[in-house]
Fold this sequence. Notes:
- InterPro entries: Rgp1.
- The chain is mainly beta.
- It has helices at 166-176, 180-183, 198-211, 370-376; strands spanning 2-8, 13-15, 19-27, 45-60, 91-96, 100-108, 113-121, 130-131, 135-146, 152-162, 216-222, 225-232, 236-238, 242-248, 255-269, 281-292, 298-304, 313-314, 318-331, 355-366, 382-387.
- Strands 2, 4, 5, 6, 8, 9 and 10 form a seven-stranded mixed sheet that branches. Strands 13, 15, 16, 18, 19 and 20 form a six-stranded mixed sheet that branches. It has a four-stranded antiparallel sheet with strand order 7-3-1-21, with no helix packed on it.
- Helix 1 packs across helix 3.
Amino acid sequence: MIEVTAKLIRGHVFLQGEVVECLISFSHPVSPTHKVSQSHADVFESLAWASAQIQCQCFTDSKISKYKEGLKIKQIVSGDTALSTVGGDNSRVEQFTKPKILFCDLRLSPGQSKTFVYREKILTDSPPSYRGQLVKYSYKIIIGTQRVNNPVKLLRVPIRVLPLAEAILNEAGALCNETTEELTPTNPFLEIRQKEKPIDLALQSLQNITARRNPNFYMISNIWGKVARFCLFKPAYKLGEDIIGTFDFTIATVSCMQVSVSLQCEEETTLDPTNEKSKQVRVITFSKQHEVCLGYKYTQLILPIPLHVTPAFTTDLVSLKWRLHFEFVTSVQKGLHPTSLEENYWQAPSEVPIETMVWSLPIRLYSTLPIHVAQGVQGNTIQKILIK
């Protein structure tokens, strides 16, 4: 019996373009005393080979499955491998890396263990991990091994891949390709500064974009007049942050009785933009804040962004965008407020005619550091399989 253990060194969450590191151990547990074989041939356990690769599996809604047949699968190698996954009618392997051989002809004595380090870079143009209503993308490290004259055994290690916006990658690539230092004369007395990696520059650009405070004011009104003035302190956010804003009702000419704000993502298929029949849209709500604001002069919005959601991205199959969805309940009836603060008795009307107005404000949602997501969202970094 051989036990195969896979352990992710730096957690189960990664960014596009980041290197995945996984420790893969093959061990031969010691058998109990009463089960020890007297044959010398049974002492050793042998494996013919073992290899590993990263696969991205795509699952689609049945209505759009027929449109995806003409799409080209992005891959590094062509042809089937021993680690290929058999998919159903609504699933396929979207991307996979070239399999890396860990060993050939491994023999283990009782109590012996061998550990290998698997390293692979996630493609920068790969889709992120996403669980939507129309499309799903999931990543796994597939570890395959085989005994002689026995079927192949597979160990699957799930990982999560976060997207990096194209603008951030382009900015990081431009900074990384600067050759100013290479053209300057070399000085043997100066310490050689290591060149920053593109992924580190991308994280710096991400921090700069999401840290900028640029308050934007929006005047909300309907046909009867002004309802409120809304202030959003910045338009770009990272996973795990709070969306903070304020409502100012002092300028209102129409009474606002209650306001609801929801964080929503809009999932839209992009298979054939020219064919409206093939286009499908799904709206999913995550966080919501509801407040009765009749009589308020000011109120605030604090809406948390969950760590388990997927930031905005676009592929050949689907496009994901984020927005704030507002619902205002207004009324033009008179007498909704006391005429003066000195009144000892005031009774609200039993019936109030109301109108509901909705408004959506697009926002930009980006990834955050993988370690922050891994701490907030539990994931199993160790997977095992027994080969008997």
